[in-house]
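Task: sequence in, structure out. Protein: Phosphate transport system permease protein PstA.
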Amino acid sequence: MTSEILTRATTASSEQDEIVLVGRARRRDAIFAGLGLFILFVAMAFLLALIADLFVDGFSRIDMAFLTDFPSRRPERSGILSAWVGTCLVMFVTAMLAIPLGIAAGLYLEEYAPKNWLTDIIEINVTNLAGVPSIIYGLLALGFFVYLAGLGRSVMVAGMVLALLILPIVIVATREAVRSIPQMIREGAYGIGADKWQTMWHYILPAARPGILTGAIVGLSRAIGETAPIITIGALTFIAFLPPAPVQPDFPFVNFDWLHAPFTVMPIQMFNWISRPQAAFHVNAAATGVVLLIMTLGMNAIAIWIRFRLRRRIGL
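Result:
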């Protein structure tokens, strides 16, 4: 009888201790969740305040003349034609270089590369490169592309340095998208006689395409606002002309001279105007920031739409 009483008392004590521990854990979770929500609210409040202030200062300045005029010494006559055209051309080169190379590298590392120490070193370096400051890429491009290779301070060099900047992002996004595909899809493809390349091309890539494209567009959204590497390679702060048109009326109808043309981009134009003492130039900088923000949000919206459509198509 005494042992039974002791057993019941021990069990009751253990249950009481468990209740106390669970209560403490729940209180810690509640405190952590509340702290996280508070930090998120403060951060979002600051971000929304900055965006609202940008729109209040610059949105009224945006009109067709602002989008189609060149920069000028007079703020009321200044526009961003050369800046947004240069931004589009640089982003086109960046996409043409970073997306195919990043997807190919991600597929190789995830599906084809042997699991050894060399692959581990490459994977670690790819992950670390995603956190390297952008100014380092600008210095690399200045020393290698501009001085050593002699490519000059051109649209092509700007696209190349931004492609290097977002290449780790595209590689990591590709690997994560491929890794998320269930193993049963590979096994089913092998079961019907497909080899590794056929399995990758016809089954894995279509299923991973939403994640890959989303990662690529998110990387481009980061590149469109970069300033440090573009300044480092010598982007112009004032340019009143456009690069040669990529398409021409005469044979061969395609012109590549624009790749070697000097350029400017919208972040550089904002930097130029915000450094001026006149308040009217600050309004122009705010308007340029609004246009840049709209372009960035548009790219992210396209990424979300593409992911939604592709997932509906493949039934995910």
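The mean pLDDT is 82.
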